[in-house]
């Protein structure tokens, strides 16, 4: 079994961070509700067709306001509360991009995943290797490819040991990605925490390539296993590693109307937390999916706390007759609690995003 290095390197840090956030939330709940929450509300500009206050243009040839995406982000004032659009021209942007926690309300708009890409090649350290890191609440991206090229660059030796090499790391709440692509091999997308929405996205990798403690819906996405292409020596891959750690934790990954493709053999997921939760609904599963489907990983003999659900799926990998015996079945009403957009959007934050069309 491949031991993904993000577990020993970052698991303790992630758990401590999430615990501290829960404690602070309990202590300051009244103050947060009446003061901070309103300050974090991003203002829409109804006079603009995209509902943004300002557009910053990034063009590598010098025809925009900045040549790099990072410089454009750096130009935005701290604690900005108005939606700012960063319009990124076609190009392969070889840079490591970070949105700091004090810069919310940013809409990154690319020219399409085949035209606009952000690429870098850091590896080994899960906590710092991400090509793109988003820390604040209220971030939107559309039409951009995020790629960590370390394990997948031309000439890479497929027999070499895989290393954690993240394409993205998402910390903030209320983040949405439309028509984006995420490329990596191990730990492609770290969905750390918060509520996130992925629509019509492409995500590829081999081991734990969608992982973390996020509360997220992946809708109409393609999830592509590349173990057979980039890591043929590995016996199998793992698509998800969801990190829910208690029965009270609202987090979970929901995949609906998705397509699971790829080469090699893979589990749909393994338990990155004692109460790990993944729901796959009305999706197409290829024959890359192993018959058992799921792996308890570090929580063998505690499978009763894991929530892994497959409902109304089809395709050669959707036969559940040989799945693990602890695969869950939910009633229609129970399932709908996760399929409904209210699972991540009870207060209607998605409707308050700038226009992405």
TrEMBL record:
GO terms for biological process: cell wall modification; pectin catabolic process. It comes from the Eukaryota. PROSITE patterns: PECTINESTERASE_2. Residues 57-345 form the Pectinesterase catalytic domain. SUPFAM superfamilies: Pectin lyase-like (SSF51126). GO terms for molecular function: pectinesterase activity. Keywords: Aspartyl esterase, Glycoprotein, Hydrolase, Membrane, Transmembrane, Transmembrane helix. The active site is at 208. It catalyses: [(1->4)-alpha-D-galacturonosyl methyl ester](n) + n H2O = [(1->4)-alpha-D-galacturonosyl](n) + n methanol + n H(+). It holds the Pfam family Pectinesterase. Its EC number is 3.1.1.11. Acts in the modification of cell walls via demethylesterification of cell wall pectin. Belongs to the pectinesterase family. This is Pectinesterase. It comes from Herrania umbratica. The gene is LOC110414390.
């Amino acid at each position: 079994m491949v031991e993904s290095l993000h577990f020993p390197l970052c698991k303790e840090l992630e758990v401590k961070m999430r615990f501290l956030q829960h404690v602070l939330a309990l202590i300051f709940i009244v103050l947060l509700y009446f003061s901070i929450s309103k300050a974090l509300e991003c203002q829409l500009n109804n006079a603009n067709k995209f509902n943004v206050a300002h557009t910053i243009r990034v063009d590598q040839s010098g025809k925009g306001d900045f040549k790099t995406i990072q410089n454009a982000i750096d130009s935005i004032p701290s604690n900005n509360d108005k939606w700012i659009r960063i319009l990124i021209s076609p190009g392969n942007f070889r840079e490591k991009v970070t949105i700091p926690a004090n810069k919310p309300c940013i809409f990154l708009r690319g020219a399409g995943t085949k035209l606009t890409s952000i690429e870098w090649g850091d590896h080994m350290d899960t906590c710092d290797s991400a090509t793109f890191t988003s820390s604040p609440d209220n971030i939107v991206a559309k039409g951009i490819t995020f790629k960590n090229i370390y394990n997948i660059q031309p000439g890479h030796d497929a027999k070499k040991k895989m290393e954690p090499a993240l394409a993205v790391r998402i910390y903030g709440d209320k983040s949405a990605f439309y028509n984006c692509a995420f490329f990596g091999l191990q730990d492609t997308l770290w969905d750390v925490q918060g509520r996130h929405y992925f629509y019509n996205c492409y995500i590829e990798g081999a081991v734990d390539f969608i992982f973390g403690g996020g509360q997220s819906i992946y809708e109409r996405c393609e999830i592509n296993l590349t173990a057979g292409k980039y890591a043929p020596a590995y016996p199998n891959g793992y698509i998800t590693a969801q990190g829910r750690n208690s029965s009270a934790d609202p987090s979970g990954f929901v995949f609906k109307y998705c397509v699971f493709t790829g080469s090699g053999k893979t589990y749909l997921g393994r338990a990155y937390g004692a109460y790990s939760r993944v729901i796959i609904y009305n999706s197409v599963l290829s024959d890359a999916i192993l018959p058992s489907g799921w792996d308890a990983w570090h929580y063998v003999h505690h499978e009763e706390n894991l929530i892994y659900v497959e409902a109304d799926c089809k395709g050669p990998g959707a036969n559940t007759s040989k799945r693990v015996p602890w695969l869950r079945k939910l009633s229609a009403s129970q399932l709908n609690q996760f399929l409904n957009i209210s699972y991540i959007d009870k207060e209607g934050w998605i409707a308050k995003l700038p226009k992405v069309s």
